[in-house]
Structure formats: C-alpha cells, structure tokens
Design goal:
Elements: H1 11-65, H2 110-113, E1 149-151, H3 161-164, E2 165-167, H4 183-194, H5 200-208, H6 216-243, E3 246-256, E4 266-274, E5 281-286, H7 295-298, E6 305-307, H8 315-319, E7 323-325, H9 328-337, H10 343-357, H11 365-394, H12 402-411, H13 414-418, H14 431-447, E8 449-450, H15 453-472, H16 476-490, H17 496-499, H18 504-517
Parallel strand pairs: 3-6, 3-8, 6-7
Antiparallel strand pairs: 1-2, 3-4, 4-5
Domain Transposase IS66 zinc-finger binding: 112-155
Region (Disordered): 59-102
Domain Transposase IS66 central: 178-456
Amino acid sequence: MDSDAPLPTDVLTLQGMVRALQAENADLRTQLQRQAEQFQRTIDDLRAEVAALKAKLDRATTHRFGRRSERTPKPPKVPGDGPAKRRHDHGRSPLPAHLERRDTVLDLTPDERRCSGCGGDRVCIGQTQTEQLDCDPTPYFVRRTIRKTYACQQCPPTVRAEDRIRTATPSTVGPIDKGLCGPGLLAEVLVGKFLDHLPLHRQVARIGRAGVTVSESTLGDWVKQSAVLLTSLYQLMLERVRTCPVLWSDDTRSRFAQPGERTMPHGHFWVGIGDPTAPYTAFHFTTGYDAASGPDQFLGGFRGHVHADCLAQYNGLFAAGAKHVACWSHARRKFLGAGDPGAKAVERINRLYHIEHTLPAPDSPEHIVARRATRQARALPILNDLKAWLDAALGTALPKSALGAAIRYVANHWAAFVRYTEDGRLSIDNNLSERTLRLIAVGRSNWKFVGSAKAGAHAAVHFSVVGTCRHLGLDATAYLREVLPALHALGEKPTADQLAPLLPDVWAKRQQSRLLVA
C-alpha cells in the first residue's frame, strides 16, 4: 500500500486493514522470537565451546608446566590406628657386604710414633674406619677360546678320521656365531640401549674411549642377532603371562621408519605384566592401533582379570571371556581435569586410595582374603555414594564439558571400576603398567624412533627381558652375561623344559641359593 494514498473512509475496510497489520505484526514478532532463541542457543553453544577449550588449555598448561604428582594429602589420624609407619629411613645406608673391600691403611711414620714427652715409642690403641663406594672404569679384555684337537696314533690308517680325531666342543663360540662380542660386552650393549637409554652411537664413543674401534652398524647387528637368540625365551615368558590369573596391560606410541618414505608413522608398544605366578613384563610391537594386531593377537586366549584402560581395542578380549578391571587413577585424572566441578568425585576417589594404603600386599592367601573383606566393608559404601553422585551430576553436566566426559567415562564402565573389590589379588589402578612403559617413554626421547617394523619387534623382545629384570630388581647385565651363552648352547629350537631354568625369576632363585651357600 502506498503511504501517500488517502485512507479509505469505510469502517469495515479500515478494520480489515488493522487486522491484517496485527497479523503481520504477530508474524514478525514470532520470527523475531525464533531468531532470538536461535541466537541464544548459538551463544550458549559458543560459551560451552569456549569453556571446553579453556578447560583443555588449562589441562595442557598444567600438564606442561604444573605439578605432575597425583599424591593426595593423608587423611587425619584416627585414634587407635597405632603408630604411623615410617616410609623412609634417613641417613646413609650401609654398603652391601658382598662387595670387595680394598683397604688403604694410613699409619704414622717411625718419627711420628715417637713420644714428644719421654722419647719412647707410642703403642697403637685403636683405629677408625671409613667406607666409601668406588669403582674402576670398565675393563675391556680379549677373550680367547682355544679348542684343542686330539688324534689316536695307534689306529691303522684304514680307520675313519672322524673316529680317530676329536676336537673339543662346541664348534662355534657364542653368544653370536662368528661375532666379535663376548657375552659380557653384548650384555653391556643391550642394557645400555634398552635399560639405560644410550643410543648405539653414544656407546660407540664410550667403547672408543678405551681405545677400541667398533662401528655403529656392528653394534646394530649384535642387537638384531641377540633378539633372535632371546626370542624363544621371550615366547615362553609371553606364554606364561597369557596363562596367569591376573595381568596388567597398557600401550605407548613410538614412531618407526619405513624404507622409501619421508614420514614416520606411529607404531605402538603393548605391555602385559603377569602376577606373581608369572612375574614377567612381555612387550609387543604393532605398526597400527587395531585390536586384531594388538591385544587380540598379543593376549589372545587370556581368560583372567585384565587391568587396562577403557580402550575399544580390548573389547574383543573381554567379549571372549577376560574380565576388565578399570583404572581409578585414570578416572581421577579426568575429574581433576574438570576443575572444581569434579572435586566431589576426586574426594571420594581419594578416600578409596586411603583405604588401599592400609591393605597388606597380596603375597599370601590370608592377605588376599583380608584385602577383599576390607574392600567389601569400607570401599563399597564409598563406591555406592559415588555412583549416586555420578547419576545426579550427569543430568546437569554439559555433554561436551570435561566433567560430562569424566562422568560418562566412569558410568559407562561402572562394572569394571568396581570389580577390584571382588578379588584381593586385584589392584585399584593400572599404574604398574604406566610405570613399566616409562622404560620406553624415557628412552624414546633419546633414540626418537625404531629403525623399522622388524626392529620394533626385536626391541619388544629386548624390552621384555630387561624390563622383567627391572621388575624383579635383578642385575640385567649379570643375568644376560650368563643367559646369552646358555641360549646359544641350546641350539635353534630349545624346548620349554630347557628354557625354564633360564627364566629371570628362576635364575634369581638360583643366584640366592649360591649366595647362601657362599
């Protein structure tokens, strides 16, 4: 309608125009209301996204620069608990008695012994003794193996030479056929690379300081051939881990080189740690991150309890009969990342850990029964209270927030999180796996990547052997120095009965028996 045109004078026409304008106005108001609601929803979504990004930035900043320890303050002492246990004995600890003692005697000269009062000789009335821990540089030496040959001079020439002549066995000197390295040097190289995180080029420089020239490629060949030698022992360790009732498992990433490719894809080291019936740390390397090449192959056939994260890669293992035991340390970490909204959950989880600190180690049937009874009586009420809080908070927490993600992480796997209370052999968390994987995480900052997918598989064998020695508190160098020649002497296909005496825990018991006899 033209605004300059005169308005009609008919009342009915004017009333129709007013009604049309009212309808148009109502329609415009409705559209405006819808746009305002849409804008408000957009603003709310942006605010939630900003809050999530801020929380993510705060977690990254805390992870990079903040306090890394997850220790919590101890609960107040309850009367009747008895005296507090000392965790550490301060002061200098005595030096081990089995170490060699080299004495340096400080004495007076004949002139100094003469008494300045009467001129006679002083008599020794006592002595003081101070002990220091010292060492000599690693002595390299040449090991010569001489094989003598004997012949019978009484047999006629018609007798076969194989019957008349005999040479001392074995015909090859190990641990590597035609290898330059002796068992002690090879053990030192393996422990240096896989336990002390020394890349091979640094070990070349260290050996060179003794005036010995060895190339880095030579050390690489030693590492590869020793992995082949240790594979049969590694497979026996892995087989026993698969048959134990409880194990701990986790994974960590590591790049590996591919021939002809400029970029290095990520592979993964998986670890499985057996309980005291099979106390071995078995590693497995995969070029991908799928279940088929990971847990399904590595731990295939396991039917006991598995301490693991809530990764989808383990679902096939659980579907086949293994029981999942989730990690409360991971859950607490997620609630800590949520800030103040997750404080109530953190407080309840801390109470669960305070109960764990009072429990004995699961080293006897009596202790195992006591651990389960204490958890059933004291931990289950706290878990039920936490579950009620999670159900109530889930309805108010934003789905994309850190708190919402933490709640869903625990609520979706609640049965796995409470399973540790059902058996005294189980742990409240999977920290044992995380501590074990530091063996690779610390070394990765030195050697950066593994040379190939095959090198990753060889590294898994070495990490399994030295990691088991570390897990049991053994001297890995002394163990390898004795076991490598023994494996070489067994040949290419040793049996399980032949390998059993060479397992780290069996070797440790044999060493203790030797010390007792000595």
